[in-house]
Every structure is written in structure tokens, then in C-alpha cells.
């Protein structure tokens, strides 16, 4: 349960009168909040104490369809930000639009990890507006990690059409994310996002920028594997694929992605005798016990390349 601005104002005036920084992010969920309730909660932070005396500003985002709203201080204080791509029904700010525009470049300067949540059966115009708003405001040039994997269990039902719409402007957005180097996404969604690997400008950007790639469950094929290698072999140093791969596919990654320093894969068959250093040496691709370690945990295999060894106590070194 989150307290109103009046509660915090009284507490600070009574016990912390010299407090200079007050930063928070409150997410209100699970209850059908009315617009009146949301406005009242926002106004409790829009008082002379917050605005004039302390110069503390607050933004409130109201999502009627999701029956949620977020209330947080600006400039945004935290390193991670979840950006819902559902319809934003109302947006409240405790400072004028002029001040907002002046501060715009610095409002999200602390954000390093951005998660964009996508929803099934979302209106196409809303989907496109999400990306265009991000491009127009240009607030995320400090982003280093981009997560396009929704926490919702329904994320696997997102359609190819949705991802193609989302990806149509994503190359422009990526150009503004000058520090981006890490991407997390479902394998199928990556294929759709790049228009079945045919969006050349987006593929080129990913090839040049992404050093760390995490792919979640998707349909594996030799064609998709070859495209991943083609696009990401240039700069990718850390690759994780959380969908079962054959031993032959694992060899393809190790052989062709020359910049890799770590590789995490799931094998179709949980057999520690199948994938080990001896197996690797037999393929004669340049790796042996002098420059590679393999850690096995259930069906997961972790390859640490060039003498990089990170072995935890609950994992088994092969």
C-alpha cells in the first residue's frame, strides 16, 4: 500500500526537514482505480511544499485498460525502466510543458536498461505510436540494455504483424540509443522484427552494436541459426540461447562467431558425455582445454572461451 503525498509531506516536515532528495517509483496495480482517484493521488504531490519549497516534481501515467497507474519523481532516478506499450489514457506532470521540454534530454539520463512491454491483440496504431513517441522525445540515449521480452505469460502470443509494425521504426530509435550494446528478445520475435531478416538497416545496426544477445524460446531452424551468425558474429561477445539446440548447431556458433567470450545453450539431449572438451577437440575448430571451459547444469551448457573460468559450487565442471 502506497501513501499519499500528504502523508509523505507531513512525515518529511516533522522528521526530515532538511531532506534534499526524495525519489520514488510507485506502481499501483490490481485495483480498478478511477480517473478521479488517480488525479487526487497526483494532486497530493502537487503542493507548494513539493513544487516551491523542495523543487520536487512528479509524473503520473494512467492506463485505464490495465487498471493501473505509475507515479514517480522526475528526473527519473533509477537505472531500469519498464515502458508499457498499452494505451496511455492520461498523463499528469507537476511542472509546465515548457520546463518539461527544457529538461527533456535529462529526464531519463539515469536509465541504462529499458524494457518495452508488448501485448497480444494490441491496436496497431497504439503499437506504432509507442515507438514514434520514443523517437520524438529522444529521452533514452543513455540506454545500454534493451529488453523486448514481456513479463506477461501471454508474450508468446504476440503476432508477427505486431513485431513488424514495431520494427518498422526501430532502426531510427536504435540510432538514438548510441550506447546500446545488449538485447534480450524471443527468437521468433527477432525474426519478425527484422522482417524475416530482410530489414537491412536494422540488421546492420544490430551487427555493429550488439555485444550481448539473449534469445528466448523460439523455433530453431538451420536458416534462423545462419542468420543469427551472419548478423551477430561481427561484435557479439556474449550469447545466450534458451531454446534447445542440437550438438551440430552448437558447433556452428563456436566455429563461426569469432568474437565470443561466453556461450550459453540448451542441448536437446541432457548428456554430459556428449558435450565435453573431448567432443569439442574432435571437431578441430580451435578450442581445447587450454582455451575453453564447459560447465554443465542439467540441460544447460556454459562455454567460457579463452581461459575464462567461472565455475560455481553447484555446477559441474566437465
Description:
The chain is of the alpha/beta class. The chain contains 12 helices and 14 strands. It has helices at 5-15, 35-43, 48-53, 97-103, 124-137, 160-167, 170-176, 187-193, 200-209, 222-232, 247-256, 277-282; strands at residues 25-28, 57-63, 68-74, 80-84, 90-93, 113-117, 145-147, 182-186, 212-216, 238-245, 262-267, 292-297, 300-305, 316-317. The strands form 2 sheets. It has a 10-stranded mixed sheet. α10 (222-232) links the parallel β9 and β10 (238-245). It is elongated and about 75 Å long. 25% of the residues are buried.
Q: What's the pLDDT, averaged over the residues?
A: 81
Q: Could you give the count of β-strands? A: 14
**Net shape:** elongated
Give the helix/strand class. alpha/beta
**Helix run count:** 12
- Element order, helices and strands? HEHHEEEEHEHEHHEHHEHEHEHEEE
Q: Percent helix among the residues?
A: 25-40%
Termini, distance in Å?
A: 49 Å
Radius of gyration, rounded?
23 Å
Which residue ranges are poorly predicted, with pLDDT under 50 across at least 5 consecutive positions? Answer: 307-318
Descriptors:
alpha/beta; 10-stranded mixed beta sheet; 4-stranded antiparallel beta sheet; 318 residues
Brief summary:
By secondary structure, the protein is α/β, with parallel strands linked by helices.
Summarize the topology.
Elements: H1 5-15, E1 25-28, H2 35-43, H3 48-53, E2 57-63, E3 68-74, E4 80-84, E5 90-93, H4 97-103, E6 113-117, H5 124-137, E7 145-147, H6 160-167, H7 170-176, E8 182-186, H8 187-193, H9 200-209, E9 212-216, H10 222-232, E10 238-245, H11 247-256, E11 262-267, H12 277-282, E12 292-297, E13 300-305, E14 316-317
Parallel strand pairs: 4-6, 6-7, 7-8, 8-9, 9-10, 10-11
Antiparallel strand pairs: 1-3, 2-3, 2-5, 11-13, 12-13, 12-14
Helix pairs in contact: 5-7, 6-8
Amino acid at each position: 500500500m502506497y501513501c499519499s503525498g500528504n502523508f509523505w509531506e507531513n512525515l518529511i516536515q516533522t522528521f526530515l526537514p532538511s531532506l534534499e532528495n526524495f525519489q520514488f517509483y510507485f506502481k499501483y496495480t490490481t485495483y480498478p482505480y478511477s480517473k478521479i482517484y488517480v488525479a487526487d493521488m497526483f494532486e497530493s504531490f502537487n503542493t507548494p511544499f513539493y513544487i516551491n519549497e523542495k523543487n520536487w516534481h512528479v509524473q503520473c501515467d494512467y492506463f485505464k485498460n490495465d487498471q493501473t497507474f505509475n507515479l514517480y519523481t522526475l528526473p527519473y532516478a533509477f537505472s531500469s525502466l519498464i515502458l508499457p506499450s498499452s494505451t496511455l489514457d492520461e498523463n499528469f506532470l507537476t511542472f509546465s510543458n515548457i520546463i518539461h521540454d527544457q529538461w527533456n534530454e535529462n529526464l531519463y539520463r539515469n536509465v541504462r536498461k529499458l524494457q518495452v512491454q508488448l501485448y497480444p491483440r494490441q491496436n496497431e496504431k497504439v503499437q506504432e505510436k509507442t515507438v514514434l513517441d520514443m523517437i520524438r522525445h529522444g529521452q533514452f540515449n543513455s540506454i545500454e540494455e534493451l529488453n523486448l521480452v514481456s513479463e506477461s505469460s501471454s508474450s508468446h502470443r504476440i503476432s508477427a504483424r505486431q513485431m513488424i509494425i514495431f520494427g518498422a521504426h526501430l532502426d531510427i530509435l536504435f540510432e538514438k540509443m548510441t550506447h546500446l550494446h545488449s538485447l534480450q528478445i524471443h527468437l521468433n520475435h527477432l525474426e519478425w522484427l527484422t522482417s524475416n531478416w530482410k530489414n537491412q538497416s536494422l540488421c546492420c545496426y544490430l551487427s555493429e552494436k550488439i555485444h550481448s544477445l539473449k534469445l528466448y524460446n523460439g523455433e530453431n531452424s538451420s536458416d534462423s541459426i545462419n542468420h543469427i551468425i551472419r548478423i551477430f558474429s561481427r561484435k557479439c561477445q556474449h550469447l545466450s540461447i534458451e531454446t534447445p539446440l542440437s550438438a551440430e548447431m552448437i558447433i556452428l556458433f563456436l566455429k563461426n562467431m569469432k568474437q565470443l567470450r561466453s556461450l550459453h545453450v540448451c542441448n536437446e539431449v541432457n548428456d554430459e558425455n556428449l558435450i565435453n572438451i573431448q567432443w569439442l577437440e574432435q571437431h578441430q575448430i580451435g578450442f581445447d582445454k587450454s582455451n575453453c571451459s564447459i560447465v554443465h547444469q542439467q540441460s544447460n551448457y556454459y562455454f567460457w572461451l579463452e581461459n575464462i573460468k567461472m565455475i560455481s559450487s553447484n555446477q559441474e565442471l566437465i
